Amino acid sequence: MIYKRSSALFAEAEKVIPGGVNSPVRAFKGVGGTPIFVKEAKGAYLYDEDGNRLIDYINSWGPMILGHAYKPVVDAVVEKAKKGTSFGMPTEIETKIAELAVSMVPNIDKIRFVNSGTEACMSAVRLARGFTGKDKIIKFAGCYHGHSDAFLIQAGSGASTFGTPNSPGVTQGTAKDTLLANYNDIDNVKALIQANKGEIACIIIEPVAGNMGCIPPKSGFLESLRVLCDDNNILLVFDEVMTGFRLAKGGAQELYNIKADIVCFGKVIGGGLPVGAFAARDEIMSYLAPLGPVYQAGTLSGNPLAMAAGLAMLEALDGEENVFTRLAEKTEYLHKGISKVLTKNEIKHTINRVGSMISVHFDENEVCDFDTAANGNNDTFKAFFHGLLNEGVYIAPSAFETWFITDALTYEDLDFTINAIDKLAKQI
Ligand SMILES: *Cc1c(COP(=O)(O)O)cnc(C)c1O
């Protein structure tokens, strides 16, 4: 494939935008080469600036669960735009999407809309701190909760010690309140709680981790976290920015039948426009301004275009009983197909999958936390990524990302992808 125009556009972009991108994951740092510039997209396909068609397995990193340019969403946005794009005053559509979200998701009475997943998680933690009157939080190594300071803390060698910032600009003062635990390691969490008795406001977790590949919670892990939180007056915060409205109508809470205290949303809830949200039972949400003392605000929060897109998306997902089963079936088909051709070509791999989230790791051992995710062979991944791209299949340019299956994908698209992998597997 030819990427002449993409390369030229990237060179232009680099002059005026740091690294040529407005979010680092879009750069090809992990795989080499230059990013592809998209011209348009429809259904399961991206069309780039050089006229190449690519089958899309990223789908804007999750939001486009029903495919690109999904008509009801596009129509809703276009209609709304004609009537004014922002008012900074309440509008009826905000209540409509709130009512629908509250009806779809278990254990929430009220929801506040923001503009990104980052804002949702940042605000959820502030609310948890305000509600409990405690400062510290526990997060898990390899889980991503957006780029606000408290979350940019990485495990050193000892994951159970105080965090150190993994970005300059995050102060030690902030880092000392973020404690790091290993995903799927309940004893680690117990030890942290023991060592910080009475100081922990919340545990925040991706109930299915999606930012180190797809890593399911081990059986009983989320249940044990729930018990630990109850016993220690700690709030359990589910970051469902990726899993919300994707794994089921009610997200991971519904799938695993666990009650979180605060739930964060993003991605699918905005139907491709910038939307995030956080939600909880009434008692907790009442702590939020203007009802309560915890401040949180946004000039463009609840923006009519964003709400129109989100509402159309949630209505589509709510109205179709089988959509989540159908997505899971397509993902299972892909899983089996890829596994078969990689095995046939003697390429060591592990494939993780929950619902419509799937990741391929080039290591034969179980991938269940950040360390095991980091064990994958990155040279194999690079060859795999570029090989697929050359066949017209676009996966995330990083071995640490989940693939997002969209309902627009047909079984022919899946077969095409599996055959492409069979072809390129002979060379890697
Ligand atoms: C994408 C993501 C975020 C951040 O959302 P943005 O809209 O990019 O700010 C937070 N948490 C999880 C689990 C995510 O996948």
Provide tags for this entry:
14 helices; four-stranded mixed beta sheet; Aspartate Aminotransferase, domain 1; Aspartate Aminotransferase, domain 2; 2 domains; 428 residues; binds pyridoxal-5'-phosphate; cytoplasm; Glutamate-1-semialdehyde 2,1-aminomutase; alpha/beta; 37% helix
How is the secondary structure organized here?
Blueprint: H1 4-16, E1 38-42, E2 45-48, E3 53-56, H2 71-81, H3 92-104, E4 110-114, H4 117-132, E5 136-140, E6 153-154, E7 164-165, H5 172-175, E8 178-181, H6 186-195, E9 200-205, H7 221-231, E10 235-239, H8 251-256, E11 262-265, E12 276-280, H9 282-285, H10 304-319, H11 323-344, E13 350-354, E14 357-361, H12 370-374, H13 378-390, E15 393-394, E16 403-404, H14 411-425
Parallel strand pairs: 3-15, 5-8, 5-9, 9-10, 10-11
Antiparallel strand pairs: 1-2, 2-3, 4-12, 6-7, 11-12, 13-14, 14-16
Helix pairs in contact: 2-10, 3-10, 11-14
The structure holds pyridoxal-5'-phosphate (PLP).
Pyridoxal-5'-phosphate (PLP) binds next to helix 4.
Describe the structure.
This protein has helices at 4-16, 71-81, 92-104, 117-132, 172-175, 186-195, 221-231, 251-256, 282-285, 304-319, 323-344, 370-374, 378-390, 411-425, and strands spanning 38-42, 45-48, 53-56, 110-114, 136-140, 153-154, 164-165, 178-181, 200-205, 235-239, 262-265, 276-280, 350-354, 357-361, 393-394, 403-404. The chain is of the alpha/beta class. The protein folds into two domains: 4-69 and 321-426, Aspartate Aminotransferase, domain 1 (Alpha-Beta Complex); 71-319, Aspartate Aminotransferase, domain 2 (3-Layer(aba) Sandwich), CATH 3.40.640.10. The strands form four sheets. Strands 4-12-11-10-9-5-8 form a seven-stranded mixed beta sheet, sandwiched between helices. It has a four-stranded mixed beta sheet with strand order 1-2-3-15. The protein has a three-stranded antiparallel beta sheet with strand order 13-14-16, covered by helices on one side.
